[in-house]
Amino acid sequence: MMRLDIVSVMPRYFTSPLENGIIRIAREKQAADVFIHNLHDYGLGKYKQVDDNPFGGGAGMILMVEPVFACIEKLKAERDYDDVIYFAPDGERLTQSIANEYSLKKNLLLLCGHYKGIDERIRERLVTREISIGDYVLSGGELAALVFIDAVVRLMPNVLGDSESALLDSFQDGKLDSAHYTRPAEFRGMKVPDVLLSGNHKKIAEWREQNAMERTKQRRPDLLDG
Ligand code: ADE
Q1: Chain segment 154-203, per-residue pLDDT in tens
Q2: Whose CA is nearest to atom 6 of ligand 1?
Q3: Chain centroid, CA 27 distance in Å
Q4: Mean pLDDT (whole number) for 92-101
Q5: 62 ligand 1 Cβ < 6 A
Q6: Ligand 1 centroid to 224 CA: how many Å?
Q7: For the whole model, what pTM was predicted?
Q8: pLDDT, tens digit, for every residue of 28-64?
Q9: Span 170-224: which CATH code?
Q10: Domain coordinates of the chain in residue numbers?
């Protein structure tokens, strides 16, 4: 069973995503377990402060070192983590291959930043991997952590019913997925390609391969470079 510990200043943000969809299935099937840690529990003083103004001035608040160190050091004393991942727009871009890699891990600690960022000393000392989910700026790392968890747990053995379905996804073989159809075979004059109704599995596989290649050329030619 994979264990995911999430450190966040907005623990309630995770309620619905963890109780629905693929993450719920992964938890029910005991493939993954997720624990949320409220950074405010480690905050400083009477008001449980977790952030402060940046040295040197400027807009936005910075997550402070003490609460983050207190929380993460406590967790690290309890078990070994494969990685302490920090989500930020200047991290390494999340890809299918990174998701594949993490689907085989045991214990992951996910740190969600907020406000303007976090004190750099946290990144230097505690964080072992930095991941971005794309070239745009979110207001915090919570959504990025959820995107990461979704992409990872659906690859774990026994989480998806059809054990093949994740392997046939877009990106798994370096190109996009083919088009899909279901009933009815004709709708308002729009027909499903005949070959898909033919029952000829070899021909169907060939059509899908060709369709996937055409779509990739058209939509994401960058995937075919090299
Ligand atoms: N936090 C803010 N923006 C982010 C991004 N693009 N990816 C991951 N974490 C983030």
Answers
A1: 999 889 876 557 767 888 889 999 999 999 999 999 999 999 999 999 99
A2: 89
A3: 16
A4: 97
A5: no
A6: 27
A7: 0.94
A8: 999 999 999 999 999 999 999 999 999 999 999 999 9
A9: 1.10.1270.20
A10: 2-153, 170-224
